[in-house]
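Narrative of activities, Objective 1.

The group set out to show that a structural description can be obtained from nothing but a protein's sequence at a throughput compatible with the screening campaign. Below is one input-output pair from the validation batch, recorded exactly as produced.
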Amino acid sequence: MTEILEKIQKVDKFNSSETFDIYRHCAEVLVNEEEKGINLLIHILNSREKFENSLDEMLADLVESIGFYPYLKKENLNLSSTGSKIRQIASLSPNMQDKYFHEEQKYVLDLLSSDKNVIISAPTSFGKSLLIEEIVASYKYNNLVIIQPTLALLDETRKKLSKYEGSYKIIVRTSQEPSTKKRNLFLLTSERVNEYRNLPDVDFLIIDEFYKLSSKRDDERSDSLNNAFRYVLERFKPKFYLLGPNIEGISRGFSEKYNAIFYKTSYSLVGCDEVDIYQEHKGRFGTQGEKKRYKERVLFDLLYRLKEQNTIIYCSSPARARYLSAEFLKYLIEKNEPPHNRDLSIVDWIETYVSKEWTLVDCLKYRIGVHDGALQKHLTSSIIDYFNSGILKALFCTATIIEGVNTTAKNVIFFDHKKGRSTPIDYFDYSNIKGRAGRLMEHYVGRIFNFNPVPKHDQTYIDIPFFEQNPISDEVLINIDNENIIDKESEQYQFLSKIPESEKKIFSRNSLYIRGQNSLLSKIRQDIRENYELICWDSTPKYRQLEYCLGLAWDYLIKPGEKVNPMTKSKIVKVTFDYGVNKSIIGLVNNDFVYKRNLERYDGWSDKEIIDESIRDSFQILRHWFQYKIPKWLLVINELQRFVCGEFGVRPGNYTFYASSIESDFVRENLAILSEYGVPRSAIVKIEKYISKDIDQDMVINEIINKKIHERSEFLSYEREKLISNFTERGV
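Output recorded for this entry:
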């Protein structure tokens, strides 16, 4: 087998006899060791031009024998027998034009068409998302909810499913009302499902990357996903489809209770060759000094050799991704490589609204991209689009790439061996990183270059805490009905059972650190008389009011062990208040730059290096703190102070306007939906004067189209492109 694969790589052309021998051998292996046979067939298809085309009929039979029907069409291979032709026709989607399913997809679809719920573990290249589209295109369900872990994934799904807007209202924000005239398709994170107050009768639920339910994989959003799943499941009893990669099993008894089938398959139409760089340089790689520099040099030399192929480089953190991309840029300049992308519209936008000094500008010109969770949605979306279209060739990524952002990468480089500072990449994570190499219908064979030892092969079982309850957090347990709680002798249950029902109802609805809320409620009761003016404010807070409330949040709502660095209690107040006044990322960056330049730890840094660091930290503040943490904190404190004010008979404050304003980047309420569609804030601000605040948010894009607002001269080319892309999605 190994000899044949090496021969396929090395030989330029096979004659009829050699082609026949290889095809015959492939047929034998498919019968005896199907997985190895599939891998050989994928490599044959990858090098199809080397084989004698007079034997295409034989190749077609091989492809059909294992149900690779999409590749029959892709390679224009014709089947000879009537039976095989009938099977090919049977694999055609009944709901999507000219789409063929492979054999395993068809099997899963049959399961979904039965009365069973389906939980599937399949490789990244299985084509699980095509099955989501088939469910939507079938029009069998009136209200579908799709939960995905990141806004980037949801945006990708929205673009893919926007063609169905004629039949579905696509809902991406909690402020959008469901339609009563057509079907509804909810594309939401778990947090937004929990916040949505008016869900209609959900009849189908999809959870993508369902392994995030697990309480054992160090994901702070596990609680939120468990609460969302349990709530939809128990209130509406919908059919459900859970999908994820490389999972061996789930909580025992879950499938039986919820009439589900757990189905695991390793079936894949994409092969992946592993290249052991670590072994080639054993003992010479390290994280400090000369060994660190040597490892980086090997990386850059490899990227230089692969410069005409799309390559993803896995990095442990946003800081690492930015650092390595900047170092690779220096490497290319030293090599006298010319810039390739001088006229990208995104560069003009960055220079206008962020900084001309940002190293990312030069990286983009040299076909280098960065993708991490700190960047704004429109930037990550554009960078992925540039990468997939070949404008960018190297993409330095963090764990965001593990979570299913689809790319057309031929190669993946497993460079760092950790997630963040201390969590080792395990075999499950490694398999997901590896799964980014190659892509269904794009590359038959991808490659992963291992700069670290491959983690020990272990099997991943996903616990479902709300069902298994071992372990289970207070934040999930508090939402479970008393009769469904398994261990009523536990300290957790005893603690929660002592909380009065009126308070428990508020804590569970807030869905945040329960013990912290309990202590915070006591603190507000203690302070309400003396600090009434600091607690009970409306609209926009004064500095001291914000300082007091965020101080409470910092002291009481951060769970033990929760990571907050480099944010501090004093800094969070200042940056939040200042951003509320300036509403400018440039202001945030400049203030952070001035602050850092005066710190001793930045002695010896150039202004450009400090600017890069300030931009990275500012975007992290914007995405993690302003658009996620702080609004949630304020809404929790808002509910608690309202409850206490009711007890004391005094007028409560109302933080909802300010919390909503921070979360939507101080964009007017009916225009905030444009941010969900990847339109930069700078463009939305320009649109404000042309669209009435009374127009419903669902009609905003139609209003932009009808008034041809995007054609006005004040919009940068990049802003215009981001607006037009939404019109294209709507078929305009």
